[in-house]
Amino acid sequence: MADRLSLEALGFDLELATPEQRAVLESLTDDEIVLLADIKRRLEDADDDVEGHMEGGGFCW
Predict the structure, then answer these.
(1) Rounded to whole angstroms, how far apart are CA atoms 31 and 17?
(2) Mind spelling out the 3-state secondary structure of 21-47?
(3) What distances in angstroms separate CA 22 from CA 48, 51, 53, one per listed residue?
(4) 36 and 59 Cβ atoms separated by less than 8 Å
(5) Which residues make Cβ contacts (< 8 Å) with residue 16, sequence separation at least 6?
(6) CB-based contact 60:12 (threshold 8 Å)
(7) Global confidence as pTM
(8) Chain segment 17-36, per-residue pLDDT in tens
(9) How many CB atoms lie within 10 A of CB 60?
(10) What span, in angstroms and rounded, lies between the C-alpha atoms of 36 and 28?
């Protein structure tokens, strides 16, 4: 189970997440957190080619 500090240390800005989104993120397993962090890193690495566009809830990228 993930805690808020470990998620924030991985670069997830939980201040932008809704309470429901935070609850889901905080319930993720260690394996799910590793996968989510890898996807986030890969999207950031492809920054010139891929941009995440969201209205609110932009905690991931």
Answers:
(1) 21
(2) HHHHHHCCCHHHHHHHHHHHHHHHHCC
(3) 28, 22, 19
(4) no
(5) 56, 57, 58, 59
(6) yes
(7) 0.66
(8) 889 988 998 899 989 998 98
(9) 18
(10) 10
